[in-house]
Amino acid sequence: MKDAVKKKFMELYGGAEPDVFFAPGRVNLIGEHTDYNGGHVFPCALTIGTYAAARRNEDGVLRFYSMNFEKLGVIEVDAAALVYDKKDNWSNYPKGVIDVLRKHGYAVEGGMDFVYSGNIPNSSGLSSSASIEVLTAFIVKTLYGLELNFIEISKLCQEAENKFIGVNCGIMDQFAIAMGRKNHAIFLDTATLEYEYAPIDLGDCKIVIACSNKKRGLGDSKYNERRSECESALASLQTVLNIRALGELTEEEFEANRAVIADPVKERRAKHAVYENRRTVRAVEALKAGDLKLFGELMNASHVSLRDDYEVTGIELDTLVETSWEQEGVIGSRMTGAGFGGCTVSIVKEDKIDAFIRNVGETYKNKIGYAADFYVVEIGNGPVVL
Ligand code: GLA
Known about the structure:
Layout: H1 2-13, E1 19-28, E2 40-41, E3 43-57, E4 61-66, E5 75-78, H2 92-103, E6 111-118, H3 128-144, H4 150-165, H5 172-178, E7 184-189, E8 194-199, E9 205-211, H6 219-238, H7 251-257, H8 264-288, H9 292-308, H10 315-325, E10 330-336, E11 343-349, H11 353-368, E12 373-377, E13 384-385
Parallel strand pairs: 4-6
Antiparallel strand pairs: 1-3, 1-13, 2-7, 3-6, 4-5, 7-8, 9-11, 9-12, 10-11
This protein binds alpha-D-galactopyranose (GLA).
């Protein structure tokens, strides 16, 4: 990958050799749709991710090229006037990051040339976009010598996604990518940004990702809709409780007060947010106690809640997960990421992985009409200069 992006860069732009950088993708093990509700998440960075070659230029333009979208060619924009433009496609992500850095007073002057290439499947829910964002911030920090730590980077990238792209995402993806650590997941309290690295020792098991290949489409608007449903449920609860976020509630406190949420749909959304947060805390405790079985059961319960109360799964993800539950050697399985398509994450005994992929793959194809893709993944580090 490193050589391929460098070669493409030299072909397109010539001149001095560029530096090459990498940022991972992420998978969330448990704690879904809790990060914008002041709850806990438990994601990890992957060894797959996004590579980019980059160099400053004196032309006052930003040039973006992606080896994943070769047909789009080099997307060239005026470095002094960064606005969201649909026709700039994926390059709105790096543009957004550069814009936000400037708005925060970082002197990112002049232009830059970039070539990106990623091995995270697109629209998979493994955060290819957050990977591009964090990678871009890391590149700009390096090329301009900016004083920026990885937590600041994750916050700025979230802001770019919220304000420039218009998706009201939480901090999880950007944080997991910027702060990734090999063989560890990150137990993050999104209310305070306090975090802890938890070693992931799965013994004779591995993490298997199944990508539904369902494109998300309306996903982003549905995402914002879920977020506002939670905000509205919170506002109702705040008429009787002194809380700032749903993540502050225990299940008991929620049960005692849920009746004030007049709308049954919003009530279910809030229930998910509260219960999923508590499940995440319990799952990390289980893992620390070496109880992988309980961890898996909590993953399964997370999926049920996302399916029935939060309603972000759909037939593709449900088929993958429900078929996974029936397979031998599966410790736990659930959808991961925003939902509405994308991927599932399963913990599977290593010697059962081949049968798992065969069986789940076959059932999925028969029922859905097209194939799923499977990846046995490893937990990797955050951004690096290669
Ligand atoms: C997306 C968002 C995250 C998080 C998840 C759902 O990945 O970017 O902030 O809300 O969905 O858990």
